[in-house]
Each structure stands twice: as structure tokens, then as C-alpha cells.
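Troubleshooting entry. The earlier prediction with zinc ion gave an output that would not parse, so I re-checked the input for stray whitespace and re-submitted. Clean input:
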Amino acid sequence: MNDAGARGKCATCKYQRKRCQENCPLAQFFPSNKFEDFQNVSRLYKVSTIIEMLNTVADNEKMAKMVETLILEAKIRSENPVYGSIAIQNKLKLQIEETMKEIDLVRKTTDYFKEL
Ligand SMILES: [Zn+2]
């Protein structure tokens, strides 16, 4: 039994309803338990595009990080189809602005009491 047989179909091949070959390029990144993640990613990118993107990265660790990022981006996009990750960025930007205002107020208060 080869690796593909031992680990079963990867999520990509399961989704595409095809046999998972031993040299399946996405098997290590989308094992069968990552079916939902792959579904989300495939709504944004074609399988060939995902493979092309992976081929632009040299080492395996960076490939894994790239896939992790694609999964996160796709998950956020499925939860917020209109704005995607921009909605989170805007929310965080507002939080930063509020916190900066708070820090400024604390500094001014501290300065005031130092002068007493
Ligand atoms: Zn596969």
C-alpha cells in the first residue's frame, strides 16, 4: 500500500472525486480531515491556482504557512462574504485608534499629576 492508500483520499481529491495519487501535491496540506477548509479555499481559488501559488514558495515550512493563510482567508471570507478580512482589519484599526486615545488620556493625566 502506498502513502496515498494508507492516509486515504486527501480533501482535495475527495472534493474533486478523483483518486488520490501518491504524488498528490495537496495531500500533505489538505488531509481528509481538512475537507471543510479545502471547500472554503476552493471557493476562492482553483486547484491549479493553489498549486501554482505553492510552487512559488521554496521550502515546505513556508508552503504550510501559505496554506494556513489561505485557509484563514477563506474561512473569514465564508463568514463575511462581502468584506472578508477587510472587515476584521477595520475593526482592529478602530480598536487601535480607541486604545491610542486612551493611552493619550492616561499620559495627559499622568503629566498633570507630575506637575502638582
Ligand atoms: Zn490528493
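This one parsed fine. Helices lie at 3-7, 11-16, 35-44, 47-55, 60-79, 85-114.
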